[in-house]
Structures are given as C-alpha cells and as structure tokens.
Amino acid sequence: MHDQRWMRLALSLGARGLGQTWPNPAVGCVLVSKGRVVGRGWTAPGGRPHAEVAALAQAGRGARGACAYVSLEPCNHRGNTGPCAQALIDAGVARVVVTCEDPDPRVAGGGIARLRAAGVEVVTGVCAAEAEAAHAGFFKRVRSGRPMVTLKLATSLDGRIATGSGESQWITGPEARRRVHGMRANHDAVLVGAGTARADDPSLTVRGMGKMAQPVRVVISGRLDVPVGSSLGRTATAVPVWMIHGPEAPDRARDTWRAAGARLIEVAVGPTGQVDVLAALCALGDIGLTRVFCEGGGTLGASFLAADLVDEMAVFGGGIMLGAEGIPAIGALGIAALAQAPQFALQGVERIGSDVLSLWRRRVTQIGN
Q1: DSSP class per residue in 49-86
Q2: Residues noted as catalytic
C-alpha cells in the first residue's frame, strides 16, 4: 500500500511536465527514506534534466539507502546526460520501484537490469495501469510511430458547433474555455484544419495560465490555402507554426509561409486528394510529438475518426439548441451500420460552469493504429 501511495505521488509530479517534455516522457520521481520524502522531481521542460536527476539533486546525501519511486523505468542510455539508472546506483539508492518498463528500444528493460546487476532491489508493476494512461502519448509514439490524438468538441445540446451562417462564438461559457486552455497546455501541439483556420482565424495559444512554453500550432492544409496574414501567420516567429501540406501545394504559398517563419511538412495525399491524416500524424511522430490536441473542424475530425486515429475525446456541451440547419460537430463518416461506428468508453463527466464536459477513451476492442 505504501508503494502505491508514493508511486501515485510520482505520477502526479510527472503530470506537471505534460506538453513540455517531448519527445521525452513526462516522468516523476520521489525519494523516500525512513517514511519521509527526501527528494522529488519531474522531467524539466525540453526533457532535461530527467526526474531522477532532479530528485537526487534535491536529496543530496539523503538519497543513500533511500527508495526511489519512478513513474517509468529509469533510462539506460547516454544522450545529453548519463543514464538515470547509473545515477541512482552512484547515489547509493537501495531500492527502486517502477510502474513498468520503458518501451523505447534504447531502454526496454535495460535500466532495470543495470540496477539489479548493481545489487539494487527493483520492484515493477506498481500502478502500471495508471502509468499506461499517464504515458499514453509517449507509448503511442514509440509503439505506433504517431502521437496520441485528443479530439475536442464544443457542441450545442443537439450536437452542432455553429449556426447555419457559421456563427460559433460562444456555444460554451468562459469556464469551459479556460479548461480548453488547460488542455492545450498539457499537449505538445494544437491541431486544426484549413477550414477552421480560415473561418475562425484562431491563435491556438494558451492564455491565462501564466508564463509557459506554448504548444506547437499545426494546420493541415493540402494546398496551403490559409492566408499568411492570419493570426497564425503574423505570430509564426513568436510561437511555432507547422503547416502540413500535400505535394500539390503551390511554390508561391510555400515560399510565403516559410518567409513568415512557419515549418512546412509535406506528406502524401489519399485517393480523394486530401492529406492522408495517418501520414500527417506519423510525420509529427517522426519529429517527436507525443500528444496532439485536435480542435477541428468537423471535416478534419471526421477524417481522424474514419481512420480510427482518435484516442481520446473531450466533449464540452453547452445548454443551447441550434437546430438541423446548424453545422454538425462531425462531418460525414459514411457509416451504414452501427457496427461500423467508432466507439468510445466514458471516462468521466464534470460540470464546468454552466456546461458539461464528458471525457471518452477509444474502446480497446477496436483494432487500429
């Protein structure tokens, strides 16, 4: 029971780094000696230093003989710094408790093996299920080559995201909008389609949360037909903007967006000529992104759902009815039978001001990427 208690503290510390540590996982570490915390740490922005190093620095000589609770297997490879497994050994830690092995092939049990070879007691499997959820984005990238996708919707009671004329501000209230900013903050990137970028001219930044590194702003635009004079274009040198486009994007549009400071990512298109969304996600995974927050619109959301690429959904519901002439939250999916419909399991429901937030996770029975 004590192991679970301290590990949950390590997991909560690691969560502080979500959205800030890619391509590294957001890990937490707690050092306990004689029932007292002597050091704690979490992965720093940019991925360095690692959680174990931060906790050891805080503990100092107090780490000798202590137990380390780490929310993911300590690394066993040398990057910009030495292996965390060796740092724990050198500090004289007597026992290490971890949630699960790190699936990164550079680690993959090697950190645990190094610790045991040095005579350190290692316990694994503590809060493993919680760790799978906490590291879902990192694990998705390592195992499938793409980041985890959270699809956010803000809808009326009848499932509409705008009136027939396109008016959408505001279906939900200020409390819900603040929660969205918090969700943006714990993702590596915020993603929209070209239609949303043109219609709403969003900034896609985190506001009202204090000083912090902003998520990357990603737009999928097959022909780069988003005005460079938009909010995204005007601020591309201040906050990163990545434009995912197809091979037919005009050279002039490419040059204009590059000059504005955007990073261009060319990917393949599908049979209909639209950007292949799996190829787009794999390109983002290659760069290092682990968690992507998709804010639409309906066509892009439908593309991700149809390709079985939505891992989680955050649905904000406002107490308003827009009728059949309103714009639906999700575009056409081509579903003829219920068995073909993407399925999600409810994770929780929360009242946010005068709105409702429901959180959903892709059913594990589905087979996909």
Answers
A1: S-HHHHHHHHHGGGGTT-EEEESSPPP-S-SSS--HHH
A2: 52
Q: Is 57 exposed, middle or buried (0-12, 13-18, 19+ CB in 10 A)?
A: middle
Give the pLDDT score at 323: 86
In this prediction, residue 331 carries a pLDDT of 86
- Separation between Cα atoms, residue 161 and residue 166, nearest integer Å: 9
Contact 1, 35 (CB under 8 A): no
Cβ atoms of residues 89 and 118 within 8 Å: yes
From residue 22, how far is each of 48, 147, 268 by CA, in Å?
A: 10, 10, 25
- The CA distance from 244 to 139, in Å, is 23
Q: Which of 84, 75, 130 is nearest to 104 (CA)?
A: 75
- Please give the Cα distance from 164 to 310 (Å, whole number): 26
Q: What is the pLDDT of residue 80?
A: 62
CA atoms within 13 Å, Cβ hemisphere of 365? 7
Query: Which residues on neighbouring strands pair with residue 149, listed in sequence order?
Result: 292
Which segments of 168-240 are extended strands (E)?
Answer: 189-193, 216-220
pLDDT of residue 47: 87
CA angle 136–110–134, rounded 5-degree value = 15
Cα separation of 280 and 245, whole Å? Answer: 9
Tokens of 198: 């043109």
Residue 367: predicted pLDDT: 44
Quote the DSSP letter at residue 269.
B
Residues in the chain with pLDDT < 70?
1, 78-81, 167-168, 364-369
